[in-house]
Amino acid sequence: TIRDILQQHLPETLRFFLLSKHYRTPVDFTDTSMEEAEKAQKRIYECFWEAEKALESRSNWKKSPVPAEILDEYNTLQTAFNDALEDDLNTASAIGHIFAMVRLINRLLEDKTLKASEQTKALLETFLSSRKTWTDILGLFGQESAAFLTDLRNIQAKRLDIDLATVERLLNERATARAAKDFARSDAIRDELLALGVAVKDGTEGASWDIALRK
After folding, report:
1. pLDDT tens sequence across 65-90
2. Nearest-CA neighbor of 108 among 131, 126, 90, 85?
3. What is the dihedral of CA 169, 172, 177, 183, to 10 degrees?
4. C-alpha 105: how far from its chain's center?
5. 0.90 cut: is pTM over it?
């Protein structure tokens, strides 16, 4: 039942999964298909988050141009998104065009020169503005990016029986060990977390964690 599904997955993931299929086609519901929907959602929300951080962290944008073909392709995809919805409410195709826009935005964010461009700034603002439209139309992507990613990580941890209190305790112990330059202990705790299914990433704002990729 839907109630059973929502014990294991976020409500927006179920909505995303259903809208990723054309309403006229059969829906093959499996745990694997829902996990694939989570991966897709995560990729999109991570792109939103990176775009938001790029806009917040920079004030000195450069005049370096973005290749015209990227700008043209993005505009074409925006039109294609609307066309898909007008074509018998083809939400599956519309979401596919969103993915293509995400790929373009990620290309810009991964290129140090293009990431600093004034044209990239304008495109990021357009991208995030479009997000509001997608939320209004599809009922998706309306949550705050970092909060959604945390909620997604936590419900995945719940499915894998990863105890959040244990994770936080070990992360705090690892931070204490790193502060004391006890790197052997820090590495041992990282291995302990990995054995639980938790991957740790160190960044400028401290350590963060996610579900470890399964082989």
Report:
1. 999 999 999 999 999 999 999 999 99
2. 126
3. 80
4. 13
5. yes
